[in-house]
Write a structure and sequence with these properties.
The protein is 28% helix and 28% strand. It contains seven helices and twelve strands. Helix 1 (20-28) runs parallel beside helix 2. It has a single domain, classed as Vaccinia Virus protein VP39 (Rossmann fold). It catalyses: adenosine(37) in tRNA1(Val) + S-adenosyl-L-methionine = N(6)-methyladenosine(37) in tRNA1(Val) + S-adenosyl-L-homocysteine + H(+). Specifically methylates the adenine in position 37 of tRNA(1)(Val) (anticodon cmo5UAC). One of its GO terms (biological process) is methylation. Belongs to the methyltransferase superfamily. tRNA (adenine-N(6)-)-methyltransferase family.
Amino acid sequence: MFRFKQFTIQQDRTAMKVCTDACVLGASADVADCGVPGTADRVSRILDIGTGTGLLALMAAQRNLTAQVDAIEVDDAAFVQAKENVAASPFAGRVRVVHRRVQDFYCDIRYDRIMTNPPFYTNHLRSPDAAVSRALHTDELPFSELVEAVARLMQPDGQWWVLLPPYEAGKLAELAKKVGLRPFKRLSMRHHAQKAVFRVITGFAFEKSCIPDETLDIYEFDEETRSGGTYTVEFRALLRDFYLIF
């Protein structure tokens, strides 16, 4: 169980548990509704692809007080647990959990924002747990099919926010370019200033060009212990609406 300020994530039946990098994605993706009804910058429909526990969908619902959020999940147990987490939250009326592959997901509307924390392993040693393998490996959701689904489901002026390791983020950007999606923002995550980047959050949009990278350190570097110490001011500010410890 992982308790946040406004909701709780039960995760005993899901392969992918709550992790820091996913929380950073949920807190930093541009999903808040800052627009005026009827204008182009209104964020009213959000899609979470591969919702798992429902974490990103619930974070989006907390940050955007009016948007309808759809959360897709293919795994049976994760789908049930996501539905239960949503039902127990204050946002149950605005979050819909759908049991389906995104490749087979069709609807009459397009989304203003899409969020994805996708599987990224290809040839790595597999877990004996089928659900863990499904969550970590790209067999059932290859990057090529993911970008095609996003291009089909996203508004022309929409944004897609995705979390991946650095190498895989680069490969995804190459494929996304083929369907007209280009990065316009990158947030690189490090454990602290003396560590290498371990995750990259990329914002994609149609025909936008990339701006310089931003970097988020999770911990202050402690010179005495030569390791991470306290949380950085930037990390605290980003997660203060969610983490109970801030």
